[in-house]
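Record format v2
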Amino acid sequence: MKIEAINENTCIVYLGDEIHEAIAEKVKQAVVSIRRSMADVVLDLVPSYTSVMVCFDLTKTDRFAMASRLRQALGEPVAESEQPGTARTIELPVYYAPEVGLDLDDVCQASGLPMEDVVNLHTGCEYRVYAIGFSPGFAYLGSTDDRIAVPRKSTPRLKVPTGSVGIAGTQTAIYPSSTPGGWQIVGRTPSKMIDWNSESLALMQVGDRVRFRSIDRQEYIDLGGTFDEL
Amino acid sequence: MSFEVLNPGMLALLQDTGRVGYQHIGVTTGGPMDEHAFLWANRLLDNALDAPQLEITFGKLSLLAHADTCIAITGADLGARINDRQAPPWRTHRIRRGDRIDFNTPVAGLRAYLAVAGGFQPTFKLGSCATVSREGLGGFDGQGKKLAKGDKLPFNPGTDEIAAAVPPEDIPDYRQSLRLGVIPGYQYPHFTPIARARFFSSAYEVSQNIDRMGYRLTGDAVHSELDGIISEGIAYGAIQIPADGQPIVLMKDRQTIGGYPKIGSLSALGAGQLAQRGPGASVSFYAMDVGEAEALRMIFQHRLKTATLLAA
């Protein structure tokens, strides 16, 4: 573990240097520990694959006190009861079809697999939320099966519809809002990834587990899915 | 009690000190591009230091006052006038019902702040009214909209009896070329000594590509040993070096995580001075210890709290 100063009110804790389940688990534990014991001075936490960036209130503490408290907080084991997210798995319904999976045909071609196999491989494993960023609620999930690990599009789309499910190499993600983006879109979920009026705001948190469930057109419509946003 | 927007100008946004506590779900902070100017405006009016204000970029904003009040203008000199008289920045101005406030174009600096006694009455989203248009958050409506013609900007009743000015030693000259301290950090060890020397000895120019997310600079290219990094949190003021070697300083509306190598970070006050520079301005960097950044911030906070205001 390394704690480094970034600026007068920010430091970053590195918990490893590769994208790995075990390091992601440490990141998740670190967030729980820091929130538990340092809420009086922490303004913002930004967890990612291998690190947690910590913004603190300079009127209440300084970098020396932060480093010492972080070392202490991260040295203490997190009790079982404080790991509410450990067993949390989110199942996300996805309609996989070319009318919403704008790059589904390209992914089939690039992987040399029929559509059914692409869908089965994408729904066939459990993913971990490694990081959230890019836009509010945009969750980076890993890892996709190597057989469908298709690289980003060479030219990004100017507008990717809300709910689009994309692949970029061994990562997969859902676009919570309509933004530009270069991921290969294979389907769309009717679920809201971000809701400013809900208690939890974002459907996913770093450390959550996610499974995709293939739904048909009718179920997609029944769950509120739309087609008009192109 | 309100101002009516007669002309929104280029870009006028409602800002408070920013949306804190939601970066873990990818929500950026927003907030004033120049904290120094923003905080002084609230101090002048004896407002809460985080009271919402208008951030006026470039100018051309025109407002009509529907009530008596007192305003403070700080930051850039955008050639503001109240009716037909000049309204210089860094001081308060009494406003009478029916007065017109017109901003022209930059004389010095790029962003002016307009605070009103008692503060504006916005809609709070996730604890803040800081406008981040890209995320659809903040502003008077809570939906992230910039000011538009016809908008009514409600404010709280406040005194119109204040006449105060910021002491001259606390007023920066935005026309000076800028030399900013950089706290080495992040991937700094992956830049060779030659690359570091180039970065700290070159003059960079502010490019046309500047907005509330980031400031792209042009000048001597700097390269690290890394193509990309595992995405990590981006601090306010962090300096990204993409593959073309041209630095990008990440500002208030930055994305929360990113995968480009970073050579270090500015202090918040340093980034605020950069935010007052437009295309063509010259910027150079020196290596600054984080302790210096901390000390400068503490001195600023102390001045803000204790400095004696001048009578205006």
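The two ends of chain A are 46 Å apart (CA to CA).
The first strand of chain A starts at residue 2 and ends at 7.
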